[in-house]
Fold:
Amino acid sequence: MRSSINGRAILIENPLTGNTSFAQALKLKEGATRWQYAAEARDSVGKKEWQGATKYVLVRNPIDRFMSGLELCHRSSEEELNKAGASEEFTTLVKETVGKEGLLPVARTSAVLTFLRKNGLSQAPTWMQPQKRWVCMRFDYVIATHSIRKSCSLDSQQGRGEADHGGLRHVRLKEERGGA
Structure:
C-alpha cells in the first residue's frame, strides 16, 4: 500500500500492474508492507482514515499479468521467491527450468502451469496470486493498465508530443490500427 503524505490518497498495490509509475506520478509514499490486500490496508490505516481517503487500485489483463509474473519468477533468486511467499517446491521447479540448457520459454511456462494446476496457486509467490485478492472492496478508482506498453508513447525527450506538468507527464496515446 502507498499513500499520500496527508493520507488523502491510498493506492492498493496489486502486483505487476504499474504501481510504481502511478505512485511516482501522484507522489505517494511507500507503506510498510508492499502488496497488502485491501482489508489489511484498511485495518493498518484505520477505518476513519480509510473512509476519508480516495482509494485507487490498478488492474491488468490477467494473462499479461501472469506472463509478467512468470518472467519475474525466472529472473528472481531463490531468496526473492521464498520472501515473496513461494513454496520451496515452486522455487525448485522454477530454478530447475531456468537452468535447463535449450529449454524454450513455452516449455518453462508449461512446467509452471502444470505444477500450479496440480498443487494450487498458494504455492506461487504473491505477485502471481489472483487480482481479486486486491480488488475485493469498494474503490474510488479502478484503473485498467491493460497493454499499457502497446498503447502509450512514453518518449523520454521533451518536444515530442509530451509535456511536463508539475511532475505529471502528459502521455500521447497511439492509435491502434491493424496491430500498428
